[in-house]
User: Which sequence fits this backbone?
């Protein structure tokens, strides 16, 4: 079977399309013919060798994907041949609270091989169903990007109708957060450096938008938007910027509000005035994807509301390096996908 892999050294220049043996399912396992994959910022970091020493070559990259069950091993009852399913990001975290042994050692796309292969075998417990109304590309966005947004707003954030949610950016996770926040009946404020992307965010249902490049003090702009309501800030911020944006997120969230920290695009380290969090009783919640239990709840909601993920572009399997470059450019709006087989 064909795969993309990092064979010996990390770096985009070292990616190669190669052949590996076609896998066969053992007892309790399912074999998937992979249909599509989608790229996350994490994948770029992994490929460049910047994600940690526990990830080493050789490695098949990417964590988000969808496949069709084409064979099952002895004792498999959870899925059937012909089912479309997504591999879980955390292969071992099925339900309950996060634990170290269920997380870091069990993630697809590093340290475990990822989804950018024509076939893969997985434990039957480590796959989840796909809503029928989604295309292969759309379905491939669910395991990481969608579930991270769901965990931030639903599992951990408990966002309620009428609350105000600030969402940073217009990448895959951010647009899922926008869609889920609207599903929950929340008021939404989206920030971006691109007026064109903010127009598209409004078309998706954003109630307000702020260009943080032309308005660097975007936290003040957010407070201006809610002025006159007797509010001291917003209820929830979906924080993807990291070092350069967290302080502003704290300043625009209400006393007792929540910040879901899901990304560090502007940097992982930086100076920060801790009393801003302490004196305002702000909850900063780190969010790393979620469990199978959360994934299945999310899929039920997506199915019920007929939600459609936002896919920017779909690249051919052979053009995976170009897809990576496109994501790295920051030009995308929503998800960047790779077609492996099928439509």
Assistant:
């Amino acid at each position: 079977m064909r795969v993309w892999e990092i064979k010996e050294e990390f770096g985009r220049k070292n990616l190669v399309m190669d052949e590996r043996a076609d896998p066969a399912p053992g007892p309790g396992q399912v074999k998937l013919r992979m249909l599509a994959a989608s790229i996350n910022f994490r994948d770029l970091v992994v490929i460049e060798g910047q994600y940690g020493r526990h990830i080493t070559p050789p490695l098949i990259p990417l964590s988000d994907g969808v496949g069709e069950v084409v064979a099952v091993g002895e004792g498999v009852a959870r899925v059937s041949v012909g089912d479309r399913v997504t591999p879980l990001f955390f292969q071992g975290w099925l339900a309950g609270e996060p634990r170290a042994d269920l997380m870091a050692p069990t993630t697809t796309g590093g340290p475990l091989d990822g989804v950018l292969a024509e076939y893969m075998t997985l434990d039957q417990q480590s796959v989840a169903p796909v809503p029928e109304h989604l295309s292969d590309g759309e379905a491939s966005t669910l395991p990481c990007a969608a579930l991270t947004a769901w965990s931030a707003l639903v599992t951990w954030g408990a966002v309620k109708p009428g609350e105000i949610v600030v969402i940073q950016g217009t990448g895959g996770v951010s647009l899922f957060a926008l869609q889920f926040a609207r599903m929950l009946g929340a008021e939404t404020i989206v920030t971006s450096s691109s007026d064109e992307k903010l127009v598209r965010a409004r078309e998706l249902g954003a109630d307000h938008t702020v260009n943080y490049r032309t308005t660097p003090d975007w936290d003040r702009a957010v407070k201006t938007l809610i002025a006159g309501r007797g509010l001291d800030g917003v209820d929830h911020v979906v924080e993807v910027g990291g070092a350069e944006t967290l302080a502003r997120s704290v300043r625009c969230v209400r006393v007792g509000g929540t910040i879901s920290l899901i990304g560090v695009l502007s940097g992982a380290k930086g100076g920060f005035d801790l009393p801003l969090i302490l004196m305002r009783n702000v909850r900063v919640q780190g969010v790393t994807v979620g469990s199978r239990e959360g994934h299945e709840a999310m899929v039920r909601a997506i199915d019920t509301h007929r939600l459609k993920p936002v896919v920017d572009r779909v690249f051919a399997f052979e053009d995976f390096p170009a897809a990576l470059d496109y994501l790295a450019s920051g030009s995308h709006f929503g998800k960047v996908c790779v077609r492996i087989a099928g439509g």
Notes: The chain has ten helices and 15 strands. The chain has a mean pLDDT of 93. The first helix runs from residue 41 to 47.
